[in-house]
Amino acid sequence: MAASNSKERGAAIDIKAATKRYGKFTALDDVSLHIEPGEFMTLLGPSGSGKTTTLNVVAGFTDLTSGDLAVGGKSIVALPAHKRNIGVVFQHYALFPHMTVGKNVAYPLALRGMDKQARDRHVARALDMVKMADFAHRYPAELSGGQQQRVALARAIVFDPPLLLMDEPLGALDKKLREWLQLEIKRIHRELGTTFVYVTHDQEEALVLSDRIAVFNQGRIEQVGTGRQLYDEPATLFVAKFIGESTSLRGDAQTSGGETSLTIAGQKVVAGGKLASGQKPVVLLRPEKLSLARTNTPPAAGQNSLTGHVSEAIYLGSGSKYQVTLGDGSVAIVRATLEATPFSIGDRVDLRWSVVDAKLLADDDRADMTMT
Amino acid sequence: MRLAPFRILLGLFCLLVAVWLVMPTLVIIPMSFNEKKSLAFPPSGFSWQWYENFFTNPDWLTSFFNSLRVAGLVAVAATLIGTLAALGLSRMKHSGAGLLRAILITPMIVPGVVLAIGIYAVYLDYHLVGTTTGFVIAHTMLAIPFVIIAVSASLEVFDVRLETAAASLGADRFTAFRTVTLPLIAPGILSGLLFAFVTSFDEIIIALFITSPYLKTLPVQIFTSITRDADPTVTAVGTIIFIATTLVISAGLIISSKSTRG
Prior knowledge:
The complex is a heterodimer of chains A (about 375) and B (about 260). With about 375 residues, chain A is an alpha+beta fold. Chain A contains nine helices and 21 strands. Chain A has two domains: about 240 residues, 3-Layer(aba) Sandwich (Rossmann fold); about 130 residues, CATH 2.40.50.100. By secondary structure, chain B is an all-alpha fold. Chain B starts with a helix and ends with a helix. Chain B: It is found in: Cell inner membrane; Cell membrane.
């Protein structure tokens, strides 16, 4: 498969103002999302956030209350699932237990009236791609979970759909197998050039796999962006807390000029930017942007400093991780390099960071409920 | 060791119950080879004459084929209706499903005599007494609950999400049913079919009410024969039916146990 035609194999997806209500409950609230042809898009969010509903709407398993949905520029809202020509991989594999692996993978081809010879060729190629060529005559019950999911993947791509949907496909597998299959899925995406839409609640998995990630919360999309954008420039506190580790600081806020300052347990820290009036500011810090220093050393220019004590110290091999309890009782997470001065539990330390590394966000109590 | 006498007593009791349960069935086998025209037990001598009589006497053969025809039609009708009913019930989401299921099972619970009186009264008006149609309608009603129970058991272990998967691969609802659902619930349907057949084949209460000299089923023929003249042919017939139904029911049980194992 040449790289030049790989873009043509995938279709663009346009979800426009999609809303789904079940009685009074709104599962999807005016969601719009554009996915590029051949892109690997992950829908990330906690359970009940609307990510799986979105996938089911695209697959045709769930009808929209209002809104539109187009694949390759054509609206497919009115098409039933079996006419959409979209591959779907389920968390529960959904292999047909009365058919062999080969028959399972040939199933969509037989439905499309493909003759036996061409069918065999396509099945062999698809099983080859997922490295299950030797298992064509086995029944699903004779395979492990990981093997079953690879067969399910082969079955979903064998008819060359322009779009592949995956609903937490690795959710039922153990961590090691999951990590290996993530790389396999990445490779298959690269080789096929098909548009992939992947649903998960695992932010690490989303970061490993995706070109872009759409973060869902309470039926809405909070932010869409690359993993780096979501980590470095989170639009909301929810996104910041859902992707990666972070420390959030709250205190009495004052704004002057283009700066906001917070007073935390008597100490003042500043952050660039300011929020709209009525919003309560939170200063968000990533663990690797923080450093620890002895309390008797002065902070460098442009650095903020807060005093606290080390409440946990963990050696990780590649560095160390600390928890620092601050004067107001909040806990900061710090990642230190091997070269940094080591501290132990109970030490009084200064938590320091550059003003430019702090991110000012609006406080949101929904963000705390989502930690898993 | 102290428990030994108790264990022996328990063993004897179990043996007694077992003998009690199978004795009436086993008694007819030696009796069917009786030399004399008598139903006295124990039989004396050995002969095949009662089997010979069954296969040569037109009264016996006609009623046998009547039963076979009725039971065959009942098996097909009850399986069709019962399977569709079980499918419908399994897809019903609201609480009405439980009530509907209870209603569909009632022919199994209502005493046969009560049903027989009702059926007889209605059949007189509609001239269905002594007709194949009449027998098939009445027996199908009795057999439907067996099919519903057997097919529902299969559907309970059937993963409906497989139909969703089939749809995503391009199968419309009927194709998905034919290629995925049907093969997976087939054991339940087959065992329902066998139970339906047997239910009709040995039904006697309703049959006694709606029979006529022109249409007798085998159980009716046995009953009239044994009450009119003590003809030992009934023991030969009983033995044949016993062996045949044992085979059919065992097949049904084996099939349905395989299906629930998945």
